[in-house]
């Protein structure tokens, strides 16, 4: 689960995970566990307790979005979701219009609870739909269930349903992907996330591909799949607002935009990540925080000391700027001058990037744009983001030595 919080002067996002799944999809390397017993009650108590501890530590006063992610948060009882939201509201302001999303697996069990999740305070659903190759992917739903779940979610939250779909899967061709996507677009709502399959070490799928039992599409083919999906979505009125995300009718996810805009967020639950200034503990700089991954250990830690923070590291000015760049360049709007100035008042975007010959090459060949709006990728450049990022990040390290002092109090958005 992930919650986004905004303090009057500081924007803070808070992430909270439900780490359990009914089975392991063959390709997935996320932090997930098959539950051995029903521990919903203790899990909920600990999520509430950690929420309270970290909210106090961050000293935020208002939350603008909440994201319940996983694992499979649609395995959590709606009462657990309600309890976490109540903990938030007890401590800080959670406005009625706050975006509250929940990731849903399109199983009958998940679908039957959608209405109760809405009663609990959820107002946006994100549904992981893999319509084909379900067997190979080890998914626990059928295409018919996926369709029914999308319909039910749309009935409950019209205009606030996202579907996640994956390309570059074993045996997939450009043609079969186009057919699949075009079918999906007939039924989907106003938000689509496209993920290219990453072959993760340690997964069943990785082993099968290594052994030669399965083959995945070539890099050229996946590049074609990505480009054809972008065109398809554009033709159907979707605007791309990030490398993998498309929305129409203003349905962009406010929560995800918080990450890409470099806002602060708090992570709650096993394996959750956070980025915030621990003002309540006397901190002045932004910290990168990771919660303990293994649920049983995390539960013990929360019971003993109120939180399961395993790792915390204060970020230097350069590290914050690197994150602002890596995240900001993923958005089609890129990084505006004003946004950059919040994090780097001393050196402008033009100071850092305007004089480099390597950046000039990217500008000249049309991959990057640096103009009065700011720095961003072109349509073609977004597909090659990794390459240009290597160059722009090197420049940040070159121009902004670690010695520069970074004051988190500067950004007031
Ligand atoms: C980790 S899941 C959590 C939500 C939910 N359990 C589900 O499966 O949809 C979030 C998204 O990550 C995607 N995902 C997981 N592993 C991936 C991989 N190796 N490559 C690309 N996408 C992946 C899933 O397909 C899903 O759309
Ligand atoms: S893709 Fe989703 S359902 Fe499948 S194992 Fe990963 S987190 Fe669980």
From TrEMBL:
Keyword Ribonucleoprotein: no
GO biological process: porphyrin-containing compound biosynthetic process
Pfam family, one: Radical_SAM
GO cellular component terms listed in the entry, alphabetical order: mitochondrion
Domain of life: Eukaryota
Domain Radical SAM core: 6-239
Compartment(s) where it occurs, according to its Swiss-Prot or TrEMBL record: Mitochondrion
Similarity comment text for this entry: Belongs to the anaerobic coproporphyrinogen-III oxidase family. HemW subfamily.
Protein name: Radical S-adenosyl methionine domain-containing protein
């Amino acid at each position: 689960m992930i919650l986004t919080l905004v303090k009057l002067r500081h924007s803070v996002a808070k992430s909270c995970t439900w780490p359990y799944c009914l089975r392991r999809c063959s390709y997935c390397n996320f932090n997930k566990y098959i539950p051995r017993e029903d521990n919903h009650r203790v899990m909920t108590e600990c999520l509430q307790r950690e929420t309270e501890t970290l909210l106090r530590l961050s000293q935020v006063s208002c939350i603008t979005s909440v994201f319940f992610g996983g694992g499979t948060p649609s395995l959590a009882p709606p009462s657990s979701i309600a309890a976490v939201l109540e903990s938030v509201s007890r401590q800080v302001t959670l406005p009625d219009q706050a975006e509250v999303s929940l990731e849903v697996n399109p199983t009958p069990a998940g679908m039957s609870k959608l209405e109760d999740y809405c009663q609990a305070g959820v107002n946006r659903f994100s549904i992981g739909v893999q319509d084909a190759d379900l067997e190979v992917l080890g998914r626990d739903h059928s295409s018919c269930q996926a369709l029914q779940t999308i319909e039910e979610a749309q009935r409950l939250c019209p205009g606030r349903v996202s579907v996640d779909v994956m390309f570059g899967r074993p045996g997939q061709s450009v043609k079969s992907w186009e057919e699949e996507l075009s079918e999906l677009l007939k039924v989907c709502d106003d938000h689509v996330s496209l993920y290219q399959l990453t072959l993760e070490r340690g997964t069943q799928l990785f082993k099968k591909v290594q052994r030669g039992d399965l083959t995945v599409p070539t890099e050229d083919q996946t590049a074609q799949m990505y480009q054809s999906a972008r065109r398809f979505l554009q033709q159907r009125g979707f605007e791309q607002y990030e490398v993998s995300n498309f929305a129409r009718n203003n349905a962009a996810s406010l929560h995800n935009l918080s990450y890409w805009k470099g806002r602060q967020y708090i992570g709650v639950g096993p394996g959750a990540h956070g980025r915030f200034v621990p003002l309540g503990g006397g901190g002045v700089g932004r910290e990168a925080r990771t919660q303990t991954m293994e649920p049983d250990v995390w539960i013990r830690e929360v019971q003993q000391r109120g939180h399961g923070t395993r790792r915390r590291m204060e970020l230097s000015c350069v590290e914050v700027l690197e994150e602002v760049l890596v995240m900001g360049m993923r958005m089609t709007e890129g990084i505006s001058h004003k946004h950059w100035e919040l994090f780097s008042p001393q050196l402008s975007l033009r100071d850092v990037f305007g004089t480099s010959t390597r950046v000039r090459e990217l500008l000249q060949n049309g991959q990057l744009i640096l103009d009065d709006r700011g720095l961003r990728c072109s349509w073609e450049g977004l597909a090659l983001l990794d390459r240009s990022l290597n160059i722009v990040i090197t420049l940040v390290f070159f121009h902004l030595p670690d010695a520069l002092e970074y004051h988190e109090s500067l950004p007031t958005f």
